[in-house]
Amino acid sequence: MTERRERRPIPTTVLRDTREQRPWTFDTLPVETRDVTLSTGDYAVPRYCTHDPELDTYRPHFAVERKSGCDFLTAITWERDRFERELQRAAEWSHPLPVVVETSWQTLLGNRGCMARRDIHPAQVVGTVTAWARHYNVAFHFVETRRRATLCAFLLLVRHSLARRLADTS
């Protein structure tokens, strides 16, 4: 019996939500991006999305959500209800929605960077992240630089793609 291998073990195209304000470009990575409307998340692989042609919207079954440090703090305070609705849309996914935050956990807890200008205590951040990770299908990834956050997101998409392909062949 001959084993059949796919030529491309990693995604070659990443869908990027058109509403991204400071989008990752993946310039140094072996992938092209296509700007589309995603119903959930900011980045996804086309193979794991359902396209609604009437709305011209892609509904991913796995995606990555991008947040700058300041966006993240806004999401857990003033825009909390809106962000919780985003988290709820990933409730049925087989894998958690990864939220990649472009700042380190140490920066947030040390009241530095974007935290220094906010009236929010680090304990509130810890409490919210802990509660959301327990209540929603979400996993937070705090990464110290934008470049590393981009790489983290790409690796999460690759890992998910490889896991799905492995599951599909077994």
TrEMBL record:
GO molecular function: DNA binding; nuclease activity
GO biological process: DNA metabolic process
Coiled coil (residue ranges): none
InterPro entries the UniProt entry points to: ERCC4_domain (IPR006166), Restrct_endonuc-II-like (IPR011335)
SUPFAM superfamilies named in the record: Restriction endonuclease-like (SSF52980)
Domain named ERCC4: residues: 17-146
Name by which UniProt lists this protein: ERCC4 domain-containing protein
Species in which this protein is naturally found: Natronomonas aquatica
